[in-house]
Amino acid sequence: MRMMKIFGAAAVAISVSGCAESVQQVKSMNWAELGGTLGGAALGGYTGAQFGGGLANTIFIASGVFVGGAAGYIGARMLDPSDQAAYDRTVRQALNEAPDGRVVRWQNPQTGRSGIFRSVASYTRSGGQVCRQYRSSVVFDDGVFNGGGTACQQADGRWMKLHDEFS
To answer: 0.85 exceeded by the pTM?
Structure first.
């Protein structure tokens, strides 16, 4: 009975997600995104099934399916290692060399992904440590993700993220 509730909640979640996103976007999902979404939805539904009873149990299952599916999808959209390497090179270059406001671009011909990185404000902390606030964008197949954060330069010259909306 519990498995039927999980599958029912998953079916409802998938059908409702079609309302929120265009059919074309769902069709354009790659296998990793689809697997992440379905795997996350199944795990979230199973977790939700452990709580409550009656209607509350059904609500927990549905919530678990939604949250798990979204987390699985987002997790699958993370940058692959070659994208991450290109992004990291761009970040180091921008933080070390580019003045505030200058856009530094990257592109990965292997995956077709690209992005930009821009330091927006530099400042020095009371101990003399240089920090930079930044904005970053990455182009995925179905849209652009924007984020930002703050990084401070360590004594050895490396930059450490203090706050990052992107990772």
So the answer is: no
